[in-house]
Design a protein that fits this description.
Keywords: Cell membrane, Cell projection, Coiled coil, Cytoplasm, Membrane, Nucleus, Phosphoprotein, Ubl conjugation. This is Merlin. It is a peripheral membrane protein. The chain is an alpha+beta fold. The protein is about 60% helix and about 10% strand. The protein has twelve helices and twelve strands. The strands form three sheets. It has a five-stranded mixed beta sheet, sandwiched between helices. A four-stranded antiparallel beta sheet has the order 6-7-8-9, covered by helices on one side. Strands 10-11-12 form a three-stranded antiparallel beta sheet, covered by helices on one side. A hairpin with a 2-residue loop joins strand 3 and strand 4. Helix 4 packs across helix 8 and helix 5 packs across helix 7. The termini are far apart.
Length: about 575
């Protein structure tokens, strides 16, 4: 036997792609596999044990169908594409999600499917309920609300509300986000599984939750109706109203459901009630309706029985898992609380450290400022000391100046006294000179008068002499008379000379006295000028030393007055002297 003959023949396979609500998977299936083999493989892959709610759905022409578990996959009306696409979805819905859904993966798949149906408007939901459901969806995705992390606009990329709700109100996305966030902030400390369960609890109360709708006609009248199949039973609706059924047949009140080609018959458990018949035009749809009726009825009966060992184990495990997770959450919450407290303590310590560092920095700055202030004060103290020394020196100089001024004032008083005395003497001398000059003027006037009289007498004598010479007296007599007249004339001339000499002598004496008086007047003028100059220097010194007390110069006005009087007297004497010289 050849080696090639020893090799086993490889089985034929085909490719399958299965899409769940949150993932896509590809499998290589054997040709002989039945629907159950592929379904079990998918359930094992995702870890699902509550398999009775789910199925593999595929698209056939204008409708859909569920993969039959007891029939080969390739023998069913599956698409001929490669790979063959199936959708792993919930085929049947529980009556109470909180009692029947045990596994977290089961809850999560139901949550994702119901959420998609609401957003696609396959399930009608009011705006208020849509906002509340959206808040639980956000809690399941993002966890607890943190205003420091969840800034405005963090929901901009999430689809949370049906388009019908968004179009119904004139509200911006930011306004919707604000409404959702207000509810979202109330769901603190709710885990993802709890948030998804709360979402399903609210969704299961919606009228269209878990209902599969089919178009039917009633009897021969061809009245168009809608048939709804769900976990509670069968419901008949008007085509334009999927919320309120016209008639309902609960599973507990149905004795039998049968169909023959296009006709369905619902037989109530109460034989007195009328049998309900309806028609469906498509055979494929009829088979689908029958599958859903059988599956929902089986689950309805199963819920009313004691749970199987498998379900009991699953529930026990789920209970233990929930208890364990609860303990873990409590531990995690305590650790989180302790971590938050530690972080707060750390932040407090860091804040305190920063505060102490700031205080230390401020203290250092204050110390530096105080040192600078101390240096500045020391410098100011040194400057003040120097200024004090300077002021003391200036005070000493001022004291010396004050003493000098006092001495000067005393000298000035003495000089004033001497000046007054000289002034009095000059005044008395001037008065005497004035009196003497007046007296001399009078004498000069008398002398002039006498001179004029003498001249008149001489003229008269000369006239008489001429008269005598013209007379007839003898020559001797005439000569003798001439001799006597010459003697008299000689006598008159000697008197005139003598008088002229006396006048000249008095004039010379007066000139000497006037010269002497002129010298005294010049000395007085020079003294007055020196006094004026000294007063001006003292006034300038007082203006320069304005900070010191100005010395008191007594009788300054009197001195000025005396100076004026001296000047007046001097001018008067000068005028007199000039007159006398003339």
């Amino acid at each position: 036997m050849s080696i090639l003959g020893l090799k086993k023949k490889q089985p034929k396979t085909f490719k399958v792609k299965v899409s769940t609500m949150d993932a896509e998977m590809e499998f290589s299936c054997e040709v002989k596999w039945k629907g159950k083999d592929l379904f079990d493989l998918v359930c094992r892959t995702i870890g699902l044990r509550e398999t009775w709610f789910f199925g593999l759905r595929y698209t056939v022409k204008d409708t859909y169908a569920w993969l039959k578990p007891d029939k080969r996959v390739l023998d069913q009306e599956v698409p001929k594409d490669s790979p063959i696409t199936f959708h792993f979805l919930a085929k049947f819905f529980p009556e109470k999600v909180e009692d029947e859904l045990v596994q977290e993966i089961t809850q999560h798949l139901f949550f994702l499917q119901v959420k998609k149906q609401i957003l696609d408007e396959e399930i009608f939901c009011s705006p208020e309920a849509s906002v509340l459901l959206a808040s639980y969806a956000v809690q399941a995705k993002y966890g607890d609300y943190d205003p420091n992390f969840h800034k405005p606009g963090f929901l901009a990329q999430d689809e949370l509300l049906p388009k019908r709700v968004l179009m119904q109100y004139q509200m911006t996305p930011d306004m919707w986000e604000e409404k959702i966030t207000a509810w979202y902030a109330e769901h603190r400390n709710i885990t993802r599984d709890e948030a998804e369960m709360e979402y399903l609890k609210i969704a299961q109360d919606l009228e269209m939750y878990g209902v599969s709708y089919f178009s039917i006609t009633q009897n021969k009248r061809d009245t168009e109706l809608l048939l709804g199949v769900d976990a509670q039973g069968l419901h008949i609706y008007n085509p334009n109203n999927k919320l309120s059924p016209n008639k309902s047949f609960p599973w507990s009140g149905i004795r039998n459901i049968s169909y023959s080609e296009k006709e369905f018959t619902i037989k109530p458990l109460d034989k007195k009630k009328e049998v309900f018949k309806f028609y469906s035009s498509q055979l494929r749809v009829n088979k689908l309706i029958l599958q859903l009726c059988i599956g929902n009825h089986d689950l309805f009966m199963r819920r009313r029985k004691v749970d199987s060992i498998e379900v009991q184990q699953m529930k026990a495990q789920a209970k233990e898992e929930k208890a364990r997770k609860k303990v873990e959450r409590q531990i995690l919450a305590r650790e989180k609380q302790m971590r938050e407290e530690a972080e707060r303590a750390k932040e407090d310590m860091e804040r305190r450290l920063f505060q102490l560092q700031d205080e230390a920095r401020m203290a250092n700055e204050a110390l530096l400022r105080s040192e600078e202030t101390a240096d500045l004060l020391a410098e100011k103290a040194q400057i003040a000391e120097e200024e004090a020394k300077l002021l003391a020196h200036k005070a000493a100089e001022a004291e010396q100046e004050r003493q000098r001024l006092e001495v000067t004032a005393l000298k000035t008083k003495e000089e004033k006294r001497l000046m007054e005395q000289k002034m009095r003497e000059a005044e008395s001398l001037a008065v005497k000179l004035v009196e003497q000059s007046e007296r001399r003027l009078k004498e000069a006037d008398h002398l002039k008068q006498d001179l004029n009289e003498a001249k008149d007498a001489e003229r008269k004598a000369k006239q008489k002499l001429l008269e005598i010479t013209k007379s007839t007296y003898p020559l001797i007599a005439a000569y003798s008379n001439m001799g006597s007249m010459s003697v008299r004339m000689d006598f008159k001339d000697s008197d005139m000379k003598r008088l002229s000499m006396e006048i000249e002598r008095e004039r010379l004496e007066y000139m000497e006295k006037s010269k002497h008086l002129q010298d005294q007047l010049k000395e007085l003028k020079s003294e007055i000028e020196s006094l004026k100059l000294e007063e001006q220097q003292q006034a300038g010194l007082y203006s320069l030393r304005s900070y010191a007390e100005p010395p008191y110069i007594p009788h300054s006005n009197v001195r000025n007055t005396q100076t004026y009087r001296l000047l007046t007297t001097t001018n008067l004497l000068e005028n007199r002297h000039c007159y006398m010289v003339k």
